[in-house]
Hints:
The chain is α+β, with helices and mostly antiparallel strands. The chain is 22% helix and 29% strand.
Amino acid sequence: MTERVPWSDYIQKSFQYNSINNSKEPVRVMLSSVKNGVPKVQPIVFQSLMSGDQRVLIFSGATRNADLMSVVKSSNSTHVIYWDMPKTKETYILTGRIYIVAAPALSYRFGTAPRRINIKTDKSAEEFWEDERIRIWQKISSEYRASFTWPEPGIPSVTKVGNGQTSWSVYGDSNTIKVPAVSSIDIGYKYKTLDAQKESSLHKSGSIASSASSSPVVKSFGGMVGRSNNSEVETVHNSALDNFCLLVFKVTDVDYTQRGIFPPNRIIFNSKNGNEWKYQNVNA
């Protein structure tokens, strides 16, 4: 059984207080890492603390965000999350390891589901995390869900709806397999809200959702495409869901500072690989 971690109650109370009357707006924190001596920083969205393992926080992001995926994959072991709590004037600096839970059809790019996280279930890691990905997708706001239909971040923007691109690449290099975003439908920022659809079997089957089953892009996946009624909304929804990923963060160290009091209070929580937690009050 996982040891109770001493900082878990702190962060739960901080989040609950700072999120009062703000349930619609996603809570964004900053994820950072260093690659070849160059720091990389990207915002990610907090979803929950994992009930079965108090060392684990669950965030979300977009796999078609090349800058974010570069941050996630730029370190083999260590990432840092900076979390500011403005109402209570608290800050958390979380150090640990992040794992990607992408759509099953994208495992060729991002790897399989994390296996070093305690999941109290008879399901396989793949089944558990795909169920969790879909469960969180269905509970997020329709505005945040719609953002997964938008064009790839970081590329030049256009003024009209749509930019003439029918596919996108996780990384902009010639060796990367192209992944269909919204099939042949060019929507740009058309969708400001997007309701979740109940059907998820085609995602559990490990196939990219698209209505363009005859597309050369889709054929590159061996024709593994779920059936669709060819409606734009369904195609856009399923493509957005394929783009939605979880970022599972296993914490090993926490630097907590409370500046809402005077003098400020600072506590350092340390562990050995997330186990045997110790903490110490230090000067702020």
